[in-house]
Amino acid sequence: MKIDLKKSFLFSKLCFLFLLLIFLNNCSTKTSATIIKDLSYENIEIDKTYNLGLIRFDKDEISLFKNKFTNKKNIKNFKTISSNMSSKNFAFESGVGLSNIEEYIIEIFQSIKNVNIDNLRIDMHSTTIVVERLV
Fold it and tell me: Which domain holds residue 21?
């Protein structure tokens, strides 16, 4: 039995290229799927600095809000800017849009026992957010 070395070498080369192609396709598919999964959760943008004002909330409610808000994965560098008797102003950075930040705020205030979200006014413009307790 005679073995043609040229044909067997060509066949092994094709098999190797085919296996390499399958491997690379699987790697890129997994990576792409991970990236798409991460990005599809929220509309991610370039980080912006936002100003947040909380009006007519007591210290305990603000403290609870602050703890829960800073634990959100896309909220960074949450800092107090100013404070007086009826309001507190903060600044933070985020790569998500206003609609996601609004969802965060509503979700957090819903979880705080003494706050009725029907009595909140949320005013949002560009990078300024004001949450006011009406009653």
Answer: 1-40
